[in-house]
Amino acid sequence: MNAAADTSSSRARRVFVVSGPSGAGKGTLIRGVMKYFPSLDVAISATTRASRPGEVNGREYWFLTDEEFDAHLAAGDFLEHVDFAGNRYGTLLSEIDRLHETGRHVILELELHGALTVEEGSMASTLVWIESPDFEELERRLRSRASDTSEEIERRMAVAREQVDAKRHFQYVVVNDDQTRAIAELQAIIERELASPLVG
After folding, report:
1. Is residue 200 one of the residues assigned to a domain?
2. Is pTM beyond 0.70 here?
């Protein structure tokens, strides 16, 4: 790795947006590249969905009630927010500001509509689409997680099929057919962007 690409104090702080269908491996790839970038941190999203076993408020998500989410929405506190699979998700601007103020670059794991909202907004960002090799593999991964009901899996698969053309909105596409290779590809993308002038 070119360490200089990640340590320049003169660089503007970056926002990387990683998106893709549920089960494509977005979170796994993000965790895989974090060790290579000391100044890169994950912004914690807010959600109205119930926490899963082992999840901690303020670590995986900020878990909000519908009333709390509505209050933030009314105050204009979100960079983006979406309804997805019966729940609401959003990125609080205070999370971005907190990380940027400490000299961190930010990486966001977002659903498609949230990612496109960031793209259409005024904040400069780099969008990366993660996809599995095919729908059969995607369904296998969703079922192996054992965190969703069969109905939820079918709904996520239907959404994934609707999103098949979404990658045209993204600067980069990473096919997660091999985890080690895909992590290396995402690492190379981040290195390239950190080493280039910020546009926008």
Report:
1. no
2. yes
Pairing of strands 15-19, 105-110: parallel
Within-domain flag for 18 = yes
First to last CA, the chain: 26
**Calpha distance 197→4 (Å, rounded):** 14
Count the domains in the chain: 1
Q: Read off the tokens for 145.
A: 């997680």
Tokens representing 182 are 């895909």
Phi, psi at 73, each rounded to 5°: -65, -45
| Beta strand spans in the chain (E) | 15-19, 40-42, 46-47, 62-63, 78-84, 87-92, 105-110, 126-131, 172-175
Whether residue 190 lies inside any domain: the answer is yes
Answer yes or no: are the C-beta atoms of 128 and 170 closer than 8 Å: yes
Q: How far apart are CA 52 and CA 36, in angstroms?
A: 28
Residue 7, both tokens: 């340590």
Interval 42-90: pLDDT, tens: 999 999 999 999 999 999 999 999 999 999 999 999 999 988 778 999 9
For residue 90, what are the domain limits?
Answer: 10-195
In a domain, 25, yes or no: yes
